[in-house]
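hey can u run this one w/ tryptophanyl-5'AMP bound, need the structure tokens asap thx
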Amino acid sequence: MRIVSGIQPTGSLHLGNYLGAIRNWVRMQDEAAAAGHDCFFFLADLHAISMPHDPAALKAGTRTMAAALTACGIDDAKSVLFNQAQVPAHAELQWLLNGTARMGWLNRMTQFKDKSGKNREGASAALFTYPVLQAADVLLYQTTHVPVGEDQKQHLELARDIAQKFNNDFCTDNAPLFTLPEPIIPRDAARIMSLRDGTSKMSKSDPSDMSRINLSDDADTVMKKVKKAKTDPAPLPTEPAGLEGRPEALNLVAIYAALTDGTVAGVLSDFGGEGFGKFKPALGELLVEHLRPVTERFNALKDDDEQIDAILARGGARAREVAAPTLAGAYDALGLLR
Ligand code: TYM
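ok here u go:
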């Protein structure tokens, strides 16, 4: 069993990333360490250049995100933590897989449509081929499990399609090069929505900081953001069906459920009939309690560039070692003389 996942080091780590992915990374890391499996977690800095970006901010953001993941519990004694740019095999395998990925497959990716918006002609070529790099990220390590939020499901299906076509086209039946990866998506926190709009996902790129809870927010800021979160005037229903058509209310209840490892139905059996005047402070306090240790660890680490760089350098060296045989296998399968 091998677990691999990544996060773009742009903007701050927010509650959507945490509940949708990072919390699962930490849980899987701890189980894997006990069972002797291994985990690779990386900062997708190569993906970050697919959108207009400031180089100095990317460099700082890569270190900050590494500090944030460490603060959440990613422990480099148990997991390999690195940034893609330290492992050239990611970019190399992407080029090799560009020969297998089909334009039609990439044309169907919803993220490209969302991120390029009305300006398709002006979007970077990297934004279009982004999912091929993501396929390379996981296929390089013979990954079996990829813990992600719901929004990455389509990209992982594409990674499986690419792996399957490559295995069919260039490998013999009894010696496929690539393992087909399985996405691991949490039940209730698969898609945490913006606090300002229950129909769009909580995101690092939303211009309004009030739309998200950052893992670095202090207690007052968390309480304020929850209090100001958009809701409707009706009290909470007693059954999940009563949340239909109430995306903001559903989002807050789902966050509460995820934080307590409970279910939406369970939260409603406690809070059904109550107004947000009672529910929001309870949710705010729960969040503050959960985030306090993470924020404390993050603040202690975030300016220690030396320690962070050492973690990433060690992780990079290990990742290069593990990636090498699969990359060599891909060159060989394609008939590239080296
Ligand atoms: P990114 O950086 O947008 O997000 C990192 C992880 O957080 C999850 N996530 C969410 N989950 C629930 N609710 C939300 N509102 C929310 N927002 C983000 C994402 O699903 C993701 O798991 N393309 C990827 C990074 C990547 C990657 C990979 C992931 C690059 N290569 C290989 C897995 C495997 C991305 O931009 O994630």
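The chain has two domains: 2-186+305-333, 209-300. anyway lmk if its weird
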